[in-house]
Design goal:
The structure holds 2 protein chains of 2 kinds.
Chain A: E1 3-10, H1 16-26, H2 32-41, H3 60-65, E2 72-77, E3 82-87, H4 95-102, E4 107-113, H5 120-131, E5 136-142, H6 151-164, E6 172-177, H7 201-207, E7 220-227, E8 239-243, E9 248-250, E10 254-258, E11 262-270, E12 275-276, E13 278-280, E14 284-289, E15 300-303, E16 309-320, E17 326-327, E18 331-336, E19 339-352, E20 359-361, E21 365-366, E22 371-384, E23 395-399, E24 406-412
Parallel strand pairs in A: 1-3, 1-4, 4-5, 5-6
Antiparallel strand pairs in A: 2-3, 7-8, 7-15, 8-14, 9-13, 10-11, 10-15, 11-12, 11-14, 16-22, 16-24, 17-21, 18-19, 18-23, 19-20, 19-22, 23-24
Chain B: H1 8-26, E1 30-33, H2 38-51, E2 60-64, H3 70-83, E3 87-91, H4 92-99, H5 112-126, E4 130-132, E5 149-152, E6 180-183, H6 191-201, E7 212-219, E8 222-225, E9 238-245, E10 255-258, H7 264-272, H8 292-298
Parallel strand pairs in B: 1-2, 1-4, 2-3, 4-6
Antiparallel strand pairs in B: 5-6, 7-8, 7-9, 8-10, 9-10
Helix pairs in contact in B: 1-2, 4-5, 6-7
Classes of the chains: A alpha+beta, B alpha/beta.
């Protein structure tokens, strides 16, 4: 069995939390006691409907305001697949939490309110999904019951959305008319829309290919920790612990340790359970080398047949996540896998206007939730790949040294 | 299926090991919170895998409330002796004495809230900068909101409105002196995942998790362990029932469930068919209010 990680995104009040509640409820993944608690707490109880959003809005402040502030993770499984859902906030001010959920997603469900059509947050969330390289998008046109299950309205929204994404290069996008509140086309097929012949949302989730963006070609092994027991039995044992983020490693492979460029050979591979001849992404393993070379946390062990780019100059698409703006010349820490280095932002080429999706050149600074193209200089040469080619070695974060906060998501170009 | 695909249990295991190694790589003085319950037993199992054949780079810490099941304490000690790692124990009883704290009254009152004090004191005493815990997001709606690396301020508080963005598998462990990070390597595991893993790895657990005959008392529809001393004005009947525990916390707030499941296989079958959640009919401390867990977490509980 495999796992599909997906997010729900869209504007406030488009019904994301309700959709997740519906998905879990109709696939029998809500326990009786949780249902009872929701019934007791439902405030909008007029129609006898349970407020399904209560299932994911787990914080006091969220229930008070009826909004989602931070990501809630929910789990369910069917006979086909296991699912990890990140229910992400719709409010612009909490976009950073949407980015958090999106960064590990295989699929995004973007909700659009049938009465309102494509909104600013639809654009923002589609742009973020595209920037973060989420392989599959499902556009769920929700509250279709409130527009008399109108085919025309659904098709108009599909057409508008297709205009919006024409330059995004998204590969897999599907559209489903749903009512999260009433359950149409979520788990069960709607009886109100004979004109819709496509899959229900659950069918899409079960069938979509998890092309686990796992790249098995370019071998990348960031060293997290050096294991040295220094016991009587194992006086000289030196194992490099880490997770293979891409590629395959075999015993006997010739490897290069970056950034130093030292060469060696893999003499032994141990997984969590046993010694093996080969290991692949995303396994956590311990590698041993045939030579006593200098390797420490932050180094990357790669193979000669595919070497990442090495430089101190990076071009990145950057999503700014902090209240304090990014200014040119500011210094940060940049963390890419197990490497952390000092970095300086040397320029901001353009900002993407969310409303028009046009590039605004040289904005001078980036404010909360801005998406900009920036150049960064790092203190040490950094082995990296383009995010679009190898997500695992192209996504870096910036950390404010003073506040210790994570202030930006960087997708290396 | 390609031969280069990982089964979901292997994916979860690899993710947890990666997180444990990040703790070892990023922090100076980390600790693993260990209670002897199934989640923390799985956590220790994963930690041994992450650092073998080396030693664990952190000690284990148990906050002993004084209301633990004796079987669990015995299990805790034998496990620690078996793996030969360091166990630190700090007692809520001592905190109550030293700080002259008022204990909640009543037959099934819990020391849950007080436990936070002892934990925060221990963090301060040893200067721990990272505390690894076995909390899972599927347990409870406030826990569903947790980051993998979750920052606590100098007062041990969680601010759910101001959590750090957490991108990809890159965990930012930078903190100011006095702050600490709570780390949850099995965040993405469900109760069933834990049991499937216990089965696959043949992990030993306290006998409490398996069905056995036991003296219990009924309290608000829950089957509670019989307290050592029953106040004279209480007139509950003591019943003999075949039960097991789905979660193991304090005797005072953890309820047993009627069950005939004596093996891991039988437990998995029972859970697959279960109509109530793990904490739903087992933890009376969660039902105090709608935000009981969130409020405890904000105050330093993990």
């Amino acid at each position: 069995m495999d796992i599909l990680r997906f997010i729900t995104a869209g504007s406030v009040d488009n019904g994301k939390s309700t959709l997740i509640g519906r998905l879990l409820h109709d696939s029998k993944a809500i326990y009786a006691d949780q249902l009872l608690a929701m019934e007791q707490q439902s405030r909008s109880n007029a129609a006898g409907c349970i407020d399904l959003a209560l299932l994911t809005d787990g914080l006091r402040a969220e229930r008070e305001q009826g909004i989602t502030i931070d990501v809630a993770y929910k789990y369910f499984s069917t006979a086909v697949r296991k699912f990890i859902i990140a229910d992400t906030p719709g409010h612009v001010q909490y976009t950073r939490n949407m980015v958090t959920g999106a960064s590990t997603a295989d699929l995004a469900v973007i909700l659009i309110d049938a009465r309102q059509g494509v909104a600013e947050q639809t654009k923002r969330h589609t742009l973020i999904s595209s920037l973060l390289g989420i392989p599959n998008l499902v556009v769920a046109v929700n509250k279709i019951d409130l527009v008399s299950y109108s085919r025309d309205i659904f098709e108009q929204i599909v057409a508008d959305y297709q205009v919006l994404i024409k330059d995004f290069g998204l590969k897999s996008v599907s559209f489903i008319p749903i009512s999260a509140l009433k359950g149409d086309n979520v788990v069960s097929r709607s009886t109100e829309m004979s004109w819709y012949n496509g899959d229900t949302l659950l069918q899409v989730l079960e069938q979509v290919e998890v092309k686990k963006s796992v790249n098995l070609k370019d071998a990348r092994f960031p060293v997290q920790y050096v294991i040295r027991p220094q016991t009587e039995e194992l006086p000289d044992y030196r194992g490099y612990a880490g997770k293979i983020i891409s590629g395959i490693y075999r015993k006997g492979d010739k490897v290069i340790i970056l950034p130093a460029g030292t060469e060696s050979t893999i003499s032994k591979i141990e997984t969590a359970s046993s010694e093996v001849d080969e290991a692949f992404a995303p396994q956590s393993v311990v590698l041993q080398l045939s030579d006593a070379v200098d390797v420490s946390r932050g180094d990357m062990i790669v193979k000669k047949d595919s070497v990442p780019a090495m430089s101190q100059e990076l071009e990145v698409m950057l999503c700014w996540l902090d209240n304090k703006p990014l200014t040119i010349g500011a210094k940060y820490l940049l963390q890419l896998n197990s490497t952390t280095t000092k970095a300086i932002v040397t320029g901001i080429a353009y900002r993407i206007n969310i409303e028009t999706l046009q590039q605004e050149p040289e904005p001078g600074q980036a404010n909360l939730n801005d998406i900009v193209k920036a150049s960064i200089k790092t203190a040490i040469p950094l082995p990296h790949d383009a995010y679009s080619r190898l997500r695992e070695n192209g996504g870096a974060i910036l950390i404010d040294e003073n506040s210790c906060a994570t202030v930006a998501a960087c997708m290396i170009q | 299926m390609s031969k280069y695909t990982l089964d979901y249990l292997d994916q979860l295991e690899s993710e947890a090991i990666h997180i444990l190694r990040e703790v070892a790589g990023q922090f100076e003085k980390s600790v693993l919170l260990f209670s002897g319950g199934k989640d923390s037993v799985v956590l220790v199992h994963l930690a041994l895998k992450a650092f073998r054949p080396g030693r664990l780079p952190f000690p284990l810490l148990h906050i002993d409330t004084g209301h633990n099941f004796p079987e669990v304490l015995a299990f805790r000690d034998s496990l620690v002796a078996h793996i030969g790692e360091q166990l630190i124990i700090r007692y809520v009883e001592d905190t109550i004495k030293i700080k002259k704290l008022t204990e909640p009254a009543g037959l099934f009152s819990s020391r849950n809230a007080l436990q936070g004090n002892t934990l925060l004191d221990a963090i301060e005493e040893f200067g721990f900068d990272a505390c690894i815990g076995g909390a899972r997001r599927d347990e409870e709606k406030a826990r569903a909101k947790e980051r993998i690396f979750s920052v606590r301020d100098a007062f041990g508080q969680w601010n759910p409105k101001l959590q750090r963005p957490e991108l990809w598998n890159t965990y930012n462990g930078k903190i100011h002196p006095g702050e600490n990070v709570r780390v949850f390597p099995i965040s993405n595991w469900t109760e069933l995942d834990v049991w499937h893993y216990i089965q696959r790895e043949n992990i030993e657990l306290p006998a409490l998790y398996f069905a056995h005959e036991r003296a219990v008392m009924e309290h608000q529809g829950n089957l509670m362990a019989v307290p050592d001393a029953i106040p004279q004005n209480q007139s509950q009947t003591i019943l003999k029932k075949t039960v097991r525990y789905r979660t193991v916390g304090d005797m005072t707030c953890t309820a047993a469930i009627e069950s005939g499941a004596t093996t891991v296989e039988a437990i998995i079958a029972e859970l697959t068919a279960a109509s109530t959640s793990e904490r739903g009919n087992t933890r009376i401390d969660d039902t105090v209010s709608e935000a009981a867990m969130e409020d405890r977490k904000k105050n330093g509980y993990f």
